Amino acid sequence: CFGFPLSIFFIVVNEFCERFSYYGMKAVLILYFKYFLHWEDNFATAIYHTFVALCYLTPIIGAIIADSWLGKFKTILYLSIVYTIGQAVLSVGSINDLTDHNRDGSPDNAAVHIALSMIGLVLIALGTGGIKPCVSAFGGDQFEDDQEKQRSIFFSLFYLAINAGSLLSTIVTPNLRATECGIHTKQQCYPLAFGVPAILMAVSLVVFIIGSKMYKKIKPQGNVMLQVSKCVGFAIANRFRHRSKEFPKREHWLDWASDKYDKQLIAQTKMVLKVLFLYIPLPMFWALFDQQGSRWTLQATAMNGDFGILVQPDQMQIVNPVLIIIMVPVVDSFVYPLIKKCKINFTPLKKMTVGMFLASMAFVAAALVQVQIDKTSPVFPAAGQSQIRLINLGVAPATVQFQPQLQSVDVAPNEATGYMTFETSELKSLNIIYASLNETKNLELLEKQRYTLAFKSDIEPNLIQDNVTSKPEEGKNLVRFINNYPFPVNVTMDDMAFGVLDPLSVSNYSIFQKQHRPFLIKASMPLGNCTVLSKEFGFGSAYTISVDNCTDDKLNVTYFEDIAPNTVHMAWQIPQYFLLTCGEVVFSVTGLAFSYSQAPSNMKAVLTAGWLLTVAVGNIIVLIVAGASKLSKQWAEYVLFAALLLVVCVIFAIMASFYTYVDPNEIEAQFSQEKKEEDKKDQDGNEKEAEADSRM
């Protein structure tokens, strides 16, 4: 079809669906851990990066299975079945109603959901990692030797399918997650967010099977990674056996393998190990890079996502692939030529060093954003402390004295104080003093709790325990009402009923999502009904709304801000994404090109495996730091990672300065020439021997 083997269209569609499935699932994974399984941030981050590390360790297994045993087609087929089952199991594990027998909105047996989720993720890691090194190579196998142009176009289409799948899924699945679903109770729809990627993976598998009769299937020809490993292992063992001084030293420790392996394999292995040595510092870059899906997504949950349309925290990850599409041609077409015109020798290793530095600066930017977020975060009482705030719903000013002789606070009419912190054991009572009235309220407070004291001159003061110990999560808002009428009032807001409130009594908090429209507040009382449209709530706020009076059927209310909304906008994450993406462009793209340019033609798979291994190790670094870190502030952890990468960047720059670039083609040509000469000598020798035999 258009000069292409028809089979490659099935492979491209298969790759698009598989990448949609993987990135769609991965986009919402950290929030699933935090909000559905209720894991704290550090543990959720550690499990997330354990999963990503597995995804980059299993490609080595997949490559060995494909090259040494099953072949690429069967490896892709069998592991895609495992992959599809994993996605389905993860989706089922996220169904809240599976164990919610008492229908209270929370799973009754969290262990079932955790077990299903972990089984699903292990199967997904085995599937996605196992097929990773096979699919693109299998596509390349479909072309004849004279179809180099078509093969090049195929790889462009292949990587376009990867980016398209990643981009679309990162838009779609967070929106699916944000919708509400459920049989008994409505909550965020993780089964749908995981279910759609599972369906796409099933479609990917079906498409791949449909094209099976058209594929060119090359039989397994042995895995070069195993050959290299055996060569290195034999050299080490042989050197150990001949460690005494009576044996002469050899120029390179790998030369000890010459007793069993030919010179060309040893020379090629030397080139590969030389590059792999440079890979040692690289995991630190990936330790920072892959935190886009964990720490940075968690950071976005505490930010304002109002861009005119509501952007979900896990959708901010889309900035990276969008910037990649923009930055790669810009850097290749403008930045590198400009540097070349300035006569700067910008070698591949120097580019990679710059990439590390930019990634380090991205985390400095993330730390600065986190500092601003922390400034707006509420401070809750610690152990041994309680917090109390005052709301004066009367028409006269009042002074409140905290006893015994702790402090005195003036409160204006229809105003509220902020939360004041006291040692729970010290605060016993308070006096409310009006112009002609002095009232005492005894207090029995619980530690680590917030309280609100509402008062007015003609009614007994009401002390309310807020029952809020943290800022509302997922950008939700908490709203409650207090009745400032002298008679009972029935309050509703949209479809949410707050019940009949007695004078100065307070309802429980109810949860409302951020939306671009006001809510209708309605107060029903003996004299009739009054309504008013609410203010527009932000993200992560809490309000106490006082129902004051009614004028011409319009309800008059006063808003008291219990917890301020998220004020730092998600757009402030764009600079850190920009720096990290620029770092990726000059580090990752250049690193792969450098590796391929320095590797013998038959050893590229070894370097690909080594490159993927650096990603896995980088994620292991994150889970170690997340598990062992004693830093109480998130910005400090960002600075720690930035500093670690900066140190590694300097080490890498020093290592790179000692590296000598080689041309593998020249070395291979030299060995080829030597082999020809040896063959010619053997042939000449055989001819002379035959001539001598004929004379006899």
From TrEMBL:
Its main location: membrane. It catalyses: L-methionyl-L-phenylalanyl-L-methionine(out) + H(+)(out) = L-methionyl-L-phenylalanyl-L-methionine(in) + H(+)(in); L-alanyl-L-lysine(out) + H(+)(out) = L-alanyl-L-lysine(in) + H(+)(in); glycyl-L-leucine(out) + H(+)(out) = glycyl-L-leucine(in) + H(+)(in); L-alanyl-L-proline(out) + H(+)(out) = L-alanyl-L-proline(in) + H(+)(in). Residues 672-696 are annotated as: Disordered. GO terms for molecular function: oligopeptide transmembrane transporter activity; symporter activity. It is found in: Apical cell membrane; Membrane. It is a multi-pass membrane protein. One of its GO terms (cellular component) is apical plasma membrane. It comes from the Eukaryota. The chain crosses the membrane at residues 43-64, 76-95, 110-131, 152-172, 192-211, 271-289, 318-339, 351-371, 577-594, 606-626, 638-662. GO terms for biological process: protein transport. Coiled coil: none annotated. Pfam families: PTR2. Residues 673-696 have a biased composition (Basic and acidic residues). Keywords: Cell membrane, Glycoprotein, Membrane, Peptide transport, Protein transport, Symport, Transmembrane, Transmembrane helix, Transport. InterPro entries: MFS_trans_sf, Oligopep_transport, POT_fam, PTR2_symporter_CS. The keyword S-adenosyl-L-methionine does not apply. Belongs to the major facilitator superfamily. Proton-dependent oligopeptide transporter (POT/PTR) (TC 2.A.17) family. Interacts (via extracellular domain region) with trypsin. NCBIfam families: 2A1704 (TIGR00926). Electrogenic proton-coupled amino-acid transporter that transports oligopeptides of 2 to 4 amino acids with a preference for dipeptides. Transports neutral and monovalently charged peptides with a proton to peptide stoichiometry of 1:1 or 2:1. Primarily responsible for the absorption of dietary di- and tripeptides from the small intestinal lumen. Mediates transepithelial transport of muramyl and N-formylated bacterial dipeptides contributing to recognition of pathogenic bacteria by the mucosal immune system. This is Solute carrier family 15 member 1. The gene is Slc15a1.
